[in-house]
Design a protein that fits this description.
Elements (H helix, E strand, L loop, with lengths): L1 H46 L5 H26 L4 H18 L1 H16 L7 E4 L2 E8 L3 E5 L5 E5 H5 L3 E3 L5 E10 L5 H14 L10 E7 L4 E10 L3 H18 L17
Antiparallel strand pairs: 1-2, 1-5, 2-3, 3-4, 6-8, 7-8
């Protein structure tokens, strides 16, 4: 009976000993988790004053990940785990994981490069890696674009760095090129004047630089013209769509033919 009581006391002491180690670690985990989230918000808020929102969010995510690693190491240390040997093991494991996740590390490094060169900011319409869309956010490994038809595309950062990247939103104005072909039998001067009149009467079409109509080439079935008009970023697409509709209606009214590909077949009777 005495031995049983002694064993029970020893077990109770062990349980209380484990509890004495666990509850400080649990409190550290709870308050540490809250502090890490608060620190991330403060870092992002501070960086937004100097950097673009997408870059600030990228660095905020990186700081958040590093602080979480430090928090878990501190919690394990509080529980009595030998963190020195643990860090050595994590270092060896990290090397193996780094070799296995080579592409992910490349995306991470590319994210830092995108922040450094600042080729775009949130809301810009860009075209890269074969995809076009407005920049939603830049994460640690990927950049998120929203396409005009409201699809979200996730592009690896390394793909944006390693390919041609076009930013359509950098400049306040853009030039549109509306290509139209006319018949070889039509009056070239009249067609050019009609195109210039369309550009002149629309207030969204800028007059400085002034609109121009040039001959691009002589095609198999038509003389190919290009109406070049400058517009602001906000008016660009709507103006282009309206002008294309007006070109067709005006040419129909004035008898200007927009040819389509055709062939003349000659049949000889022997």
């Amino acid at each position: 009976m005495l031995d049983f009581l002694l064993e029970s006391n020893a077990l109770t002491e062990r349980i209380w000993g484990v509890f004495d180690q666990l509850w400080p670690a649990l409190l550290l985990l709870i308050f540490g988790w809250w502090a890490v989230k608060l620190m991330k918000k403060l870092v992002v808020k501070t960086l937004k004053r100097k950097l673009d929102e997408s870059a600030a969010l990228f660095l905020g995510q990186l700081v958040h990940a590093l602080l979480l690693v430090l928090l878990f190491i501190a919690v394990l240390s509080q529980m009595g785990v030998n963190t020195t040997s643990l860090l050595a093991a994590l270092g060896a494991a990290g090397l193996a994981v780094g070799l296995a996740l080579k592409d992910s590390l490349q995306n991470l490094a590319s994210g830092f490069l995108l922040i450094a060169i600042k080729p775009f900011k949130k809301g810009d319409y860009i075209e890269g890696a074969g995809t076009g869309g407005s920049v939603e956010k830049m994460a640690l490994l990927h950049t998120y674009l929203k396409t005009p038809d409201n699809k979200v595309v996730m592009i690896p950062n390394s793909s944006l760095v390693g390919s041609n990247l076009v930013n359509y939103s950098t400049e306040p104005q853009r030039r549109m090129d509306i290509r139209v072909g006319i018949s070889y039998d039509d009056d070239l001067r009249k067609a050019k004047d009609l195109l210039l009149q369309l550009a002149a009467k629309d207030e969204r079409a800028l007059q400085d630089p002034e609109p121009r109509v040039i001959i691009i080439d002589f095609g198999d079935n038509s003389v190919n013209l290009s109406l070049r008009v400058w517009a602001s970023q906000d008016d660009f697409w709507f103006l282009q769509w309206d002008l294309m509709e007006e070109v067709k209606a005006t040419f129909d009214t004035h008898g200007i033919t927009i040819p389509f590909p055709q062939r003349d077949v000659h049949h000889y009777q022997h």
